[in-house]
């Protein structure tokens, strides 16, 4: 992956909410075609960073660049059309909508043709492994794991180049987490996406990521390969509250 083009660059981004500093001068670069992890204790600023990248929040300071273009402060739908998609930390059940229709909604971001959007949705549901017999079910009739896969499919149906996954494994059993990790790897291989995973499940994010960024109290305190991060004294202190000897 070394020498690949930088597809996302965050340059000195800061964000406050009242007197609370959520992000403090965060800078990082993401090369095209990799899977990255973004970790840190609760309240470290991970979701806030995703929100600044995707236009939900405008940074107080700093800039965000996607594929060389300054996207700072653009509306979320504009950033999505440029090729940045995300899932959300909390599953938002579509109780009265069919699975296929929920994914068609993602496909309609870049086409006005229902037929074309349906074709995209069907291909994407097959990619993430949602069985055809589930496509006609309502959101109220499917499991949490299936909701996770449908959320993932809906994001992929927007045909992104950069995919941000916000705690997608939360609430899943270990065997479901393993299945989801395999799905994400398959999506990465077959679609050639750049993926950033925010996650508290360390085994999940460490097994997926080639490089990991660590936030603590709004600051980027470490970045590196999973094995480097696992033994980094700053990271151990941030998570455990103890300074290694």
Automatic annotation (TrEMBL):
Keywords of this entry: ATP-binding, Nucleotide-binding, Transport
One cellular-component annotation, GO: plasma membrane
GO molecular function: ATP binding; ATP hydrolysis activity
Domain ABC transporter: 8-242
InterPro entries linked: AAA+_ATPase, ABC_AA/LPS_Transport, ABC_transporter-like_ATP-bd, BCA_ABC_TP_C, P-loop_NTPase
This protein's record includes keyword Ubl conjugation: no
Origin: domain of life: Archaea
Transmembrane segments: none
Record bears the keyword Nucleotide-binding: yes
Protein name, UniProt field: ABC transporter ATP-binding protein
């Amino acid at each position: 992956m070394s020498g690949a083009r930088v597809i996302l660059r965050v340059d000195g981004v800061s964000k406050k909410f009242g007197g609370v500093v959520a992000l403090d001068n965060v800078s990082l670069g993401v090369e095209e075609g990799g899977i990255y992890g973004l970790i840190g204790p609760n309240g470290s600023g991970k979701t806030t960073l995703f929100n600044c990248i995707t236009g939900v929040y405008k940074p107080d300071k700093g800039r965000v660049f996607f594929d060389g273009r300054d996207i700072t402060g653009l509306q979320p739908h504009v950033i999505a059309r440029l090729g940045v998609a995300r899932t959300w930390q909390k599953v938002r059940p579509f109780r009265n909508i069919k699975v296929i229709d929920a994914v068609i909604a993602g496909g309609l971001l870049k086409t006005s043709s229902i037929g074309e959007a349906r074709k995209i949705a069907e291909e994407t549901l097959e990619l993430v492994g949602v069985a055809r017999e589930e496509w006609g079910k309502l959101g109220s009739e499917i499991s949490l794991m299936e909701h996770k896969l449908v959320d993932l499919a809906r994001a992929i149906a927007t045909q992104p180049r950069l995919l941000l996954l916000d705690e997608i494994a939360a609430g899943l059993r270990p065997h479901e987490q393993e299945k989801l990790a395999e799905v994400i790897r398959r999506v990465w291989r077959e679609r050639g996406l750049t993926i950033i995973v925010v996650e508290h499940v360390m085994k999940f994010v460490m097994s997926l990521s080639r490089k990991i960024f660590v936030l603590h109290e709004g600051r980027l305190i470490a970045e590196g390969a999973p094995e480097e991060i696992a033994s980094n004294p700053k990271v151990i202190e941030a998570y455990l509250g103890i300074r290694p000897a």
